[in-house]
Amino acid sequence: MFKFLHAADIHLDSPLRGLDRYDGAPVDEIRGATRRALENLVAVAVEHQVAFVVIAGDVYDGNWPDFNTGLFFVRAMGKLREAGIAVVMISGNHDADNKMTRALELPDNVRRLSTRKPESVVGRQLGFGLQDVDVVFHGQGFASAVVDENVVQRYPLGRSGAFNIGLLHTSLEMTGGEHARYAPCSVADLVSRQYDYWALGHVHKARVVQEDPPIVFPGNIQGRHIRESGSKGCQLVTVDDRGHPTLEFVPLDVFRWHELTVAAEDAKRGDDVLGLIGQTFQRLVREQGDLPLAVRVVVTGRCAAHRALAAAPEAWANQVRAVAAGAGEVWVEKVKFQTADVAAAVVPPIDEGPLLELSALVQEFSGDDQRLLELTDELAALKKKLPPELLSDEWGDDPLRLEQPAFWRSLLMQVEPLLRARLLAEEGGA
User: What is the pLDDT of residues 291-338, one digit of tens each?
Assistant: First the structure.
């Protein structure tokens, strides 16, 4: 029996985005999070006395600002060497961006596989914790940030009588989304190599693609923004005497991101919404223990509190941040109010008059992309006055895109209920 760790996408010294513009945010803690997560990886390897660690690409995050990033990684690998633990790794697309990666000398317990073609390495030849482990590593790193080729077809077949591990930095067959298409291949391609475990990297969300044989993305070891929410870590793999692997996800992150959806259907006042959010914060803190949290709050539902929230969203967002401050080590990355007026749900059908005209106008604009785009030109001056955080992706969120019809269509859906309620109120007061 032996154990090993499978990690990927360390992105050492990658900046965490989304909180440093807020007073009181733990900026230093955010900046050092990837380093401390790597230290946790080393500690877990030593604690569980693993035979080796495999790293499936993207140790770094593109070009380093200086050599300190690389030296920190070398020191971490040196600690594994002191514990008699070998490391087998490949380069990913972000490593390929970095010219200094190739020049950095790593400790002799670390074996980086070839970037020219798939390479097979017998574990016993590496020494350290692998002397008594019958394992063979197969893999290829990359020297280019863009790879469209299916390299798995060139990987050798697994060797009989040994535990075969394949290392690959890949998007599989997935395209689009936050991860670029990279070294694409199919699950069938991987299975055809007859390996006992596939250690994948590139996709930052932990995922067991297939259980037998295991085809695994461990995800990145530390979330860096709101799109990388939830627990982050590595896979601890235990291989029994029959060569059967058992997987256990081990968290390594030191700062965690969450998106909380708060249903506010019964909220009559803004303070009622704050009460619901406070309860949700308390529950989350209990679940996560002492781990600092960065949270995006999304408030949804038709409620009587909608008008108050819509009238002063930034003021209420600051109230939410105050509630978070009282809940523990919780910082609010953003607050989104996606509520609707409860009165809009009970508006009777109108056959004539202003309400009918309003409905027809909204439908007319919503179905005409050209007219929606004309609104962009008409409101160009307004765009110049908007806060920059609404117009960029700096903090890991989708930017506000006034040039896209979908933005205006969404805005019309929010505005129509407000206008309908106001017209009804005016008619009732007449």
Answer: 899 899 999 999 999 989 988 999 999 999 999 989 988 989 889 999
Give the burial string for 118-142 (b: 16+ CB within 10 Å, else e). Answer: bbbbebeebebbbeebebbbbbbbb
Asked whether 136 and 159 are in contact (CB, 8 A), the reply is yes
Q: In angstroms, what CA-CA distances link 350 with 323, 340, 355, 357, 360?
A: 42, 20, 7, 10, 11
Beta strand 293-303 with 330-341 is: parallel
Give the Cα separation of 4 and 309 in Å (integer).
51
Q: What are phi and psi of 119, to 5 degrees?
A: -125, 145
With vertex at residue 387, the alpha carbon angle to CA 384 and CA 388, rounded to the nearest 5 degrees, is: 85
* Chain segment 352-386, per-residue pLDDT in tens: 567 677 777 777 777 777 777 776 676 666 666 65
Provide φ and ψ at 225, rounded to 5°.
Answer: -160, 180
C-beta separation of 68 from 145 below 8 A: no
Can you give the pTM of this predicted structure? 0.80
Residue 338: partners with Cβ closer than 8 Å, 6 or more residues away: 298, 299, 300
Query: Three-state SS across 361-430?
Result: HHHHHHCCHHHHHHHHHHCHHHHHHCCHHHCCCCCCCCCCCCCCHHHHHHHHHHHHHHHHHHHHHHHHHC
